[in-house]
Amino acid sequence: MRHLVCILLSCAIVALAFHYAEPLPKLPQKEEFLPKAEYAKALAMGHNVTASGLFWISGIIDLGESYLYGTSYAWLSHVGNLSTELDSLFRTPYNVVGSITNNDEPDTTDFIVMRRAVRVYPDDWRLAVYFALRLANSPTHNYAEAAKIMKHFSTSKDTTIPPHIKSIYRNFELNTMQTEMALEMLINDALNPQFKDLIKGFTPKTLRALHRKGEPDTNIVNEVSFIMKKLSEHAIDPNYAYQRLLSFKKEEPADSASAKEPDTTTANDTATIAN
After folding, report:
1. Which pLDDT belongs to residue 243?
2. In the chain, how many domains are there?
3. CA count, 13 A, side-chain hemisphere, 90
4. Which of residues 220 and 11 earns the better pLDDT score?
5. Average confidence (pLDDT) over 7-26
6. Minimal CA–CA distance to 240: which of 252, 253, 226?
7. Each residue of 87-137: pLDDT tens digit?
8. pLDDT exceeds 50 at position 275
9. Over the range 248-266, which residues count as b (16 or more CB within 10 Å of their CB) and which as e?
10. Considering the domain boundaries, does residue 53 fall inside one?
11. CA distance 231 to 196
12. What is the chain's mean pLDDT, rounded?
């Protein structure tokens, strides 16, 4: 009986000790032990391509497991960066990182990977679109760099590039312009027969330039749409159209004048680029 009491008392003491003990520190994920590229190169002993593939396969397996178990996986860009540092011609990480990363993802580690992608494959328009949309919609809203990246394809002879992708750089440029300059560009584009089939897309762009994105007044939306349509038909005086559109300009609040919203219409226009 005395032994039973001792055992029960010991169990109670151990249970209380566990209950009131400080929690154990969270063990880091194995990806936190990813080596730097220079160390990985030394360990690879000249087999950089093989090492790159092994790191990438490991990362993809972990990504797949995160989908199966419903957990988050925040290391894809880090693995992609290591793999492409070891083998910059390894195209798969560029495509996967570019297509999977959310455009508004706060972690910008993928920027390193995608900058390397457009440098190594400057004529791959899909990689360029991935990175341009990411730049435009990321916390930095870097429309200027996005426009510079995509302008390279505006005169490309690659027949696989859709027309709206060739002109997408202008969407990014609009976000860097003052209202008056943006309206001039939109009117000139509307008068250009090359963009006649895309004229419906000019209405949201014009509203955005006028600081009326998501405008609830249907009368203004309809008139802007009417003016752009007439411009494409050369049925309205451009000077009158400019003055009329400018009259719809909405002054931005002082606290938001320096921080523009992400260009979601651009993302919608390119939803099918991977097809």
Report:
1. 95
2. 1
3. 24
4. 220
5. 53
6. 226
7. 999 999 999 999 999 998 888 989 999 999 999 999 999 999 999 999 999
8. no
9. beeeeeeeeeeebebbbeb
10. yes
11. 9
12. 83
**DSSP letters for the chain:** -HHHHHHHHHHHHHHHHHHHSPPPPPPPPGGGGPPPHHHHHHHHTT-HHHHHHHHHHHHHHHHHHHHHHT-----HHHHHHHHHHH-TT-HHHHHHHHHHS-TT-S--THHHHHHHHHHHSTT-HHHHHHHHHHHHHSTT--HHHHHHHHHTTTT---TTS-HHHHTHHHHHHHTTS-HHHHHHHHHHHHHSGGGGGGGGGHHHHHHHHTT-TT---HHHHHHHHHHHHHHHTT-S-HHHHHHHHHTT--PPPTTTTTSPPP-HHHHHHTTTTT-
**Contact call for residues 265 and 136 (beta carbons, < 8 A):** no
Tokens at residue 11, please?
Answer: 């169990």
Which structural domain range is residue 68 located in?
A: 27-121
Calpha distance 262→102 (Å, rounded): 13
Q: Is residue 13 part of a domain?
A: no
- Assess if residue 21 is contained within a domain: no
pLDDT tens figures, 136-149: 999 989 999 999 99
Work out the pLDDT band at 252, boundaries 50, 70, 90. Answer: low
> Would 72 be classed as within a structural domain?
yes
Is the pLDDT reported for residue 27 higher than 70? Answer: no
**Which residues fall within 8 angstroms of residue 262, CB to CB, at 6 or more apart?**
103, 104, 136, 137, 138, 141
